[in-house]
Amino acid sequence: MEFARQQVDLNRFGVNRICKLLGISKTTYYRSKNPKINFEQKYFKNKKTIIHIIEKNPAYGVKRIKAELEDKYHILIGRDTLGKLLKVWGLSLKRKIKTKKLTLIQKILKALASRANLLIRTKITRPLQAITSDITELKFAGGTAYLCVHKDVMGQMVYGWGLGLSMKTRLVLESFDKAIRYTKKLKRHGPVGDKLLFHQDRGSQYTSYRYVRAVLDNGTISYSDPGTPTHNPGQESFFGRFKDEWKDEIAEIKTFEELQKFVKSKINYYNYYRRHTSIGLISPYKFTKLFFKNRRL
User: Fold this and answer.
1) pTM for this one?
2) Which contacts qualify for 51-54: CB closer than 8 Å, 24 or more apart?
């Protein structure tokens, strides 16, 4: 123990040498040190490598540094552990995460807050009055796809749908365009009154200039309250039933083309054959057609 009393900086010696000099095991040595020092000492041998990666790749974040350590140097360090080490060693990352600027439409919606939710303040009394839209994820054997639908609030009819491998604006526009074409065909059953009300959440697809312009050319627009992206119970219920009823079949589909055909057939079944308790145990199409027939009478 004479070595310990000399107050020599032990950090410049290897752990094995220190333990040999002190006559203790490495376990005892680590337990005796400050937890923070223990943590730092455990990974000290990798510090130069991590510094080298940061200097060579200044734009790298923790995730990319971790991948570089594994792929190039065969050093395995967990993501959270690596993040703590960077803080302990004062290795600040130069990469800056840019804050996404709000578009003009998003700024307006932010100012309007809950007032942009017209659906919640509208009394729904007929089909072809209000249409809601949302996007859900479908996992199939060939990968992941995204389904967007535009569905009638009262009549439950799916007027439009779109399926894609990404959640870009064109996906909701595809669904919206189909909905507009379909509703124009249904209007021959009788007068539908004012313009259609389209309601959705505040996702970037639904607040894009292209989508907003398309909606305003055909009706009025409404958005879920801020902070409630899933505040659309009709859509949640539809997607929940759709994925629950056809879960096994979807999971076995191997190609996107096969998935498209499958979704088309099931939405056709949903619209024309599936009985719904909320509309008197008849199909959405029959309910909508009968509603306007009775209204004319």
Assistant:
1) 0.67
2) 51/91, 54/91, 54/93
According to CATH, what is the number of the domain 104-296?
3.30.420.10
Tokens of 68: 């570089």
Widest Cα–Cα separation across the chain: 107
* DSSP track, 31-91: HHS-HHHHHHHHTGGGHHHHHHHHHH-TT--HHHHHHHHHHHH-----HHHHHHHHHHTT-
pLDDT beneath 50: ranges in the chain: 1-8, 10
Buried b (16+ CB within 10 A) or exposed e, 52-82: ebbeeeeebebeebbebbeeeeebebeeeeb
- Please give the order of strands across the beta sheet that includes 130-140: 158-164, 143-152, 130-140, 196-200, 219-223
Where in the chain are the domains?
Answer: 2-88, 104-296
State in Å, rounded, how far the first CA of the chain is from the last one. 104
